[in-house]
Design goal:
410 residues, mainly alpha, 18 helices, 80% helix, globular
Length: 410
């Protein structure tokens, strides 16, 4: 997918960058749907009679689409067009959110959460490749650092705004409002993002099977995808259960939402820092090891060390902030380590699929660990540390493979 032409007029360049920044907002809109459940979870548990483990599956059900369809959707997006894929995903998100609010049985809420997962995937998977197509190469690392923060920024918005909406009405109201917002994003995408090139234009296209084989035949693709899954699983589990942990400690819903939003928002700091460090030439695998290693130490401090509440909050805050080095680094590595330019979307699709696997498995594993310890959250860190330690091993392998050549990040 070609970069923006060097001779493009300044006005057109600004319009392209504006479109790329708007795509970050579209990603944040998709993130709102993922994270609308945590602030509503205490209300959903009461209304639908959910156990702790069932709540964990409700948190992770939105990952079912990505769990099975990450690479297939990427292959389809290569054929129908990246922009068309984003538009279809926004349509699915809006429809599923409306139906989930209207048909509010526990089974249907779970099913529509899975449908929302497909929509999130169709929105988030093509956007990095679209950004690469739009922006000049010398700005790519910085904008991808901003893209890496779409999830924590969306999380902050929904945890704060969602808690406020829930204090005024039911969870169904929140679902309806998000559906309306998503329709607005769809209309703006039609207006601001350039249309896909006509089918067959530009370059000869590989077959779908060949694209899949090339993508899955790359060791680097597997390494970055598995690291993303290991990172996402632990972050989703810790942040997703924070409102429930605070509620069990007697913290009010609005306060719990605020504290969780601060923790989630801190992740954006790490993402933005990673973008700047990568732009300056820092090796990506160094950032991965630093982020994951810090997450191990902070998870132990937050849950296993018996520290006072203020110190626990500080540890979770650093857990999320320094952990933010990981996703932005992985998105840039996905663009630079993709086997061919044509496999950029499929590389990110496979990375998203492994991320969804981690987010699907992470919350139930943490909930199971808590149940096995008699409902005590102090052993949470053992589950998250296992994810992070495995990610560190894989990051070191990336570094060993990169030694014979120049760093993959610029």
């Amino acid at each position: 997918m070609p970069h923006t032409a060097p001779g493009l007029r300044a006005a057109e360049t600004h319009a392209a960058i504006r479109a790329a920044l708007f795509l970050v907002l579209v990603g944040m809109c998709a993130a709102l749907h993922i994270w609308k459940v945590p602030p509503a979870l205490p209300q959903l548990q009461v209304e639908l009679g959910l156990s702790l483990v069932e709540s964990g599956f409700l948190l992770s059900a939105v990952q079912l689409g990505g769990l099975f369809l990450g690479l297939p959707v990427a292959l389809v997006a290569e054929r129908i067009g990246l922009r068309r894929c984003v538009l279809a995903g926004l349509g699915i998100l809006a429809t599923a959110s409306m139906l989930g609010a209207w048909l509010d049985s526990s089974l249907l809420v779970l099913l529509f959460r899975a449908a929302e997962g497909c929509g999130v995937l169709m929105v988030a998977m093509p956007i990095p490749a679209l950004i690469r197509r739009l922006v000049p190469p010398d700005r790519l690392s910085r904008i991808m650092g901003l893209w890496g923060s779409y999830m924590p920024l969306g999380t902050v918005i929904i945890l704060l705004g969602g808690s406020w909406v829930l204090s005024l009405g039911s969870w169904q109201l929140l679902w309806w409002l998000l559906a309306a917002l998503t329709v607005g994003c769809l209309l703006l995408t039609l207006r601001l993002v350039p249309a896909d090139a006509p089918a067959g234009a530009g370059r000869p296209r590989d077959s779908l099977l060949q694209l899949a084989r090339t993508t899955l035949g790359s060791v680097n693709v597997w390494l970055i995808a598995l690291i993303f899954g290991l990172y996402a699983g632990q972050w989703m589990a810790v942040i997703g259960f924070l409102p429930t942990i605070y509620a069990a400690q007697g913290v009010s819903g609005t306060t719990a939402g605020l504290l969780t939003a601060i923790v989630a928002g801190a992740n954006a700091i790490g993402n933005l820092a990673a973008g700047r460090l990568l732009h300056r030439g820092a090796p990506g695998w160094h950032l991965l090891v630093a982020g994951l290693g810090t997450m191990i130490l902070c998870a132990y401090a937050a849950f296993g060390a018996g520290l006072p509440a203020s110190a626990q909050f500080a540890a979770v805050l650093v857990f999320s902030m320094v952990g933010g080095l990981v996703p932005a680094t992985l998105f840039v590595l996905a663009l630079t380590l993709a086997p061919t330019p044509q496999t950029t979307s499929t590389t990110i699709g496979w990375m998203q699929q492994c991320s969804s696997l981690g987010q699907f498995v992470g919350p139930p594993v943490v909930a199971w660990t808590v149940n096995r310890s008699g409902g005590d959250w102090q052993w949470t860190w053992t589950a998250t540390a296992a994810f992070a330690a495995a990610g560190i091993v894989l990051a070191i392998l990336i570094g060993l493979r990169a030694k014979p050549r120049a760093s993959a990040t610029r």
